[in-house]
Amino acid sequence: MSKLPDDWKIVNLEEVITKMRSGGTPKSTNEEYYKGNIPFVKIDDITSSNKFLIETKTKISEEALNDSSAWLVPEGVILYSMYASLGFVAINKLPVATNQAIMSIIPDTSKIDMEYLYQFLLDIKNKIDKFVDQTTQKNLNAQKVRKFKIPLPPLQEQKKIAEILSTVDQKIAFVDNQIEETELLKKGLMQKLLTEGIGHTEFKDSEIGRIPKSWDIDILEELTTKIGDGLHGTPKYVENSEYYFINGNNLNSKIIEITDNTKCISKEEYLKNKKVLNETTVLLSINGTIGSLAYFNNEKVMLGKSIAYMNVNDRILKQFLFYTLKSSTILRYFLLELTGTTIRNLSLKTLRNTKIPLPPLEEQKQIAEILSTADEKLENLKVKKESFEELKKGLMQKLLTGEVRV
After folding, report:
1. What is the CATH number of the domain that holds 148?
2. How far apart, in whole angstroms, are the C-alpha atoms of residue 83 and residue 376?
3. 37, 146, 175, 320: which sits with the fewest CB atoms below 10 Å from its CB?
4. Where are the beta strands (DSSP E) in 1-74?
5. Whole-model pTM?
């Protein structure tokens, strides 16, 4: 830890708390234990909460509480995950019980501000490995948590630091809500537009459900000039190259994403195995991860067998096909047709025989544009969230070390 201001101290966590205790799990074989109204916190409740925990998926009875090592944690306590998903933090807004993977920490508010402690525990989340017991799964134990070293400013400065960081948290939470609302809006739009279209009043029953009377249905093979997949085998890798070997994990929200783990190949290997990909191509993951999609934009990539490519003909727009393949109807069909046990696979035969609803081209364009607008809004919100997260990261670095005083 870098040099701190003279009026700051370094303390162990145990010096600034009044109580720290983990919970327990009532016997799962006793169904009556799980018919009560006491919120019972598991790790996924914390990981899915946005700072404040206001509800849980599971509830237990008074009897379950009395017959196990679980205890009733009062409202306004820090809940800290110690097993598997390490270092997640929440503040409970209602009395709860917790399982043994969660430590409840009650701060001594005459020494440390609750929000300041919350922010400190968030800050060390990515540095937690040095405290971890390396077993089959990563765990912390209570003794190590008690010995966490905390930089401790005067109480009033703690409150100011926490207030600044909490303000950024509120902005992140607000954007999170906007993202969630936009995703729900997009889901509703997809369901409506891909089954009802735009402005239709007459409908008909079909093999894929109720659709507008003027729409056709055809199998994907009839809407493409070529459907195929990538290399069945392993190419020769090289250290540095502008050519890449990609699989389904590289398909990410319309784009081909090249990561640090993406392998390079030589130009010769690329030319030997490349497929006919062009401006009409849509890519789909068909092995392991099923249903990820991207457009091909002249990237210098060689496909692995986990990617199918579809070159559309003039009867369907690639943008419309992209959204249709993301629809719940198509995904359900894919899931029913998967083969394999350990690694799931979608065959090219299944893909070629997939039934696609087919509006007139102009309507396809309108539907794709509406859904693309929703996607653009989502992308902008995600960028906005990332900028707030970067701002907070910088503020934490300066405020929690005393580099900037408040």
Report:
1. 3.90.220.20
2. 38
3. 37
4. 9-12, 17-22, 38-41, 52-53, 58-60
5. 0.85
